Amino acid sequence: MSAEKNTFAIETTSLTKKYGNKVVVKRLNLKVREGEIYGFIGRNGAGKSTTLKMLCGIASPTEGEIRIFEKPVSDPVVRRRLGVLIESAGLYFHMTARQNVMMKAKCMGITDEKSVEEVLRMTGLADAGKKKVKHFSMGMKQRLGVALALLGNPDLLILDEPINGLDPEGIRELRQLILELHEEGKTILISSHILGELSKISTNYGIIKDGELIEQLTREELEEKCQDYFQLEVEDVKRSLALIQESFPQVQAEVEDARAIRIYGLEDGAGLNQMLIENQISVYASGFHRMDLEEYFLERMEGGRQYV
Ligand SMILES: Nc1ncnc2c1ncn2[C@@H]1O[C@H](COP(=O)(O)OP(=O)(O)OP(=O)(O)O)[C@@H](O)[C@H]1O
Q1: What does pTM read for this prediction?
Q2: Residue nearest to ligand 1 atom 12, measured at CA
Q3: Which of 118, 122, 153, 162 is most buried by its number of CB atoms within 10 A?
Q4: Which parts of the chain register pLDDT below 70?
Q5: CA of 49 to the centre of ligand 1 (A)
Q6: 106: buried, middle or exposed (CB in 10 Å: 19+, 13-18, 0-12)?
Q7: Ranges for the ABC transporter domain (predicted)?
């Protein structure tokens, strides 16, 4: 993977957007370093698209500041370094892929045909021939949207939900393309609510909930958080917790629901079961689990667990 640098491709300070009285993006301090694939994750309506629109200059912030490559987003130099795929990619359905790309190239003042061929090749559309966009699969349309975003060879790509509507093959192709672009040194911000997919490519994550950035973390930090745990289903959660804390003071235990407890940092699962049984607690089920990334994100977006 390409090396991450220490300069910021995107940095926002207290970025806020209100629609009427509703605050949909709240004081966001988003930081994306050059060379990262930044997975921007949140449920539908969390504020992802609104944030991305502000980053691209499509929507104006109510408050706060945005810097792209350490310059204001309005700077024309910044505009040229930015490629964007947001919502409907602005495709002309009665035209072919090549005609669409040529049209956008013309609007951008790009006259050399090589650039057009290059983005078609990179997105696997060079052989789409005379087929009109209206006959394209969803995957082809998304790839064409990415091709348009790639015109002008931008250093930063902002892709809003590019996986939406793609079949597994389309997802695999897009993933491959994003990884190749990253290898070339591009910084990529990609939003999605499909967590499993993002976790296959992202080097960094930002989790947005109700307009607030509740966490930013690296892939390594995330993997560390997805540690093994021991899960117990017992008849008396409260008494079990007290007994666990007394007998295994080094572990961290948390209530999952009315019957289940999660224990981190435990090595001797059998010993813990034995201790509970000796104390007349019925253990219905127990075993070691590994939290996957999806589970972690869901818990963060649902407001976290209750630690004891
Ligand atoms: N132009 C607008 N006027 C009023 N409210 C809006 C407007 N655009 C978005 N919103 C509201 O802002 C909130 C955040 O929407 P946004 O589209 O940014 O979320 P999202 O995380 O991208 O979700 P989705 O994946 O569903 O697009 C939602 O409650 C939405 O209804």
Answers
A1: 0.80
A2: 24
A3: 162
A4: 1-5, 88-89, 303-308
A5: 7
A6: exposed
A7: 10-235
